[in-house]
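Form 7-S
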Amino acid sequence: MTSNTMVMRVAIRVDASAAIGTGHIKRCLSLAQALSESGAEIRFVCRHIDTVAARLMNMGVHAEHWLPAPAEALTPQPDAPPHAAWAGVPQAQDATETTLALSKWCPDWVVVDHYAFDARWHRAVRDALGCRLLVVDDTADRALDADALLDHNWAPDHRAKYAGRLTREPRWFCGPRFALLSAAYRHAPRYCFHDPVRSAGVFMGGTDPGGISGRALAACRSAGFSGLVEVVSTSANPQLPALREACARDGRAALTLDHPNLATFFARHDLQIGAGGGAAWERCCIGAPSVVVAFADNQNAVVKALGSLGAAVGSSPDALHLSNSVRALIEKPELRRNMAALSRELVDGYGTLRVAIALLGSKVLLTPAKQSDAKIAFPWRNSAITRRFFRDPRTLTLIEHMAWWCQTLSRADRNLLIARLGRVKVGVLRLDWDAERQQAEVSIYLDPNYAGLGLGKQMLRELSLWVQVSASNPKRLVAEIHPDNLASRRAFESAGYRRLDDQHWCLELAI
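Output:
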């Protein structure tokens, strides 16, 4: 194993409340899960605004620090961000309290998912803690000072969206490829299409703003649907008594609270009605035909985008509009069929891990491969993205691959290494030794799910350290790279290799 074992620390500053909703904490809990899986230590910082956040947090799973409840209602200053009231206290006060909560812990990264804070909060926390900052946003309604920016909503041009809002050039994690979904969505069963709508599902977020869940149930009935409607909500929903009554009065509605796995809920109904927040991307991942309702400006953008892409039908909260949208989907099975396919293409369930791996990439570890790793690496090796630049670009059978892997592990003139971050295995490195020249040829490929995150560069840098520690008198590492493989060329160059000609690269090792 390589020596790069110091654990990276990531703090997450996020809130939930009746006004804010539950989506911010839910997506941050998903990110925390992926960061922990990838080897990081996590600490949440939240404020006691009301009881919503405390009900959502997974007590005991990650360390938590709770900031005190606001002493009085906040009247934001004229120059405050548009959503400043959500924080409950002035952002300068919050920055000070957050810094004090984290000063002894010394985080490497602070993730802030809060529309109430702008570049002033970002700078104050970064400067005080000496950390880097990942800002999670989708409003683009205030100045941001971010080392990395995460906006998992779709936009035709995220740089144009944030033009004039950024005080520095961040690392960009933008679009549904980085959707912050829980680990359950990576391998959850997808929706299986049926022509008739047998049942419908309604989920309008954890706090159900304006009691829209009951309105969605009524829209199903006014659209002529008489089948089962499952309404999902949470114990934090302030509209819960009225929703219980509406479901009981309907007679064909089931109310489910605090559903542990919405992926299964999205997959079991032929029609979904939901809000245009983070759950919109969860429904896309499952391929659930959906009517998506906008409650806020940032949700308007999501609803419009999904509609333009053909991945959902957008609706306003207006009862008649909602009913007409539901009727249109019920009556047009071919529309629902196409929608299911298009939505799955947008979101694959690996977005949260992509963000985690990108943040933690400098901590990649190399370990000798085992025979049990062969099945894990098999789909990586056979990916069209991977093998198109191989000397032998054939698709191998599993038997052929397993035999090659076993034979490679037995050779004295080869090393086969697995790259990983925490428990997540991300790539393969092979060294073919030329003892006479005291050099090795390097071959590398990644899990295609994590392409474009800078992992190749980090793996190659760690490899040079591994070779100098583990090999006898190594002088250089060499590589043959296809001239069209621009990503690989950039990775080797960033890792210190120099180009010898159009296909050959070399790294002289310090002995």
